[in-house]
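User: Could you check the structure of this?
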Amino acid sequence: QVQLVESGGGLVQAGGSLRLSCTASGRTNSIYLMGWFRQAPGKEREFVGRIYWNSGDTDYADSVKGRFTISRDNAKSTEYLEMNNLKPEDTAVYYCALEKMIGIRYWGQGTQVTVSS
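Assistant: Sure, the predicted structure tokens are below.
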């Protein structure tokens, strides 16, 4: 089993920045990728971005490209989501996800990000 704990959410004004962290514990061997999703009230959960654990390659949803950056610290089994130039439409619960090489996906509990206009 893998446990994921997110931190760093909060309230920020439009144009501001936040950094989210997600630390994995438990059986953290064979990580294929870690990623971020978000879910706004009344909407479906959507993909934000991901990082491939071995290569460090990243890709992002078009809505956050150029504003959000994902990085990782392999030794700490931690990924980060740096969010800049935040917009009110970025308001959501942000979820961390981890996918193992064998295709199993784990989810964090979510952290609230609220961007005021």
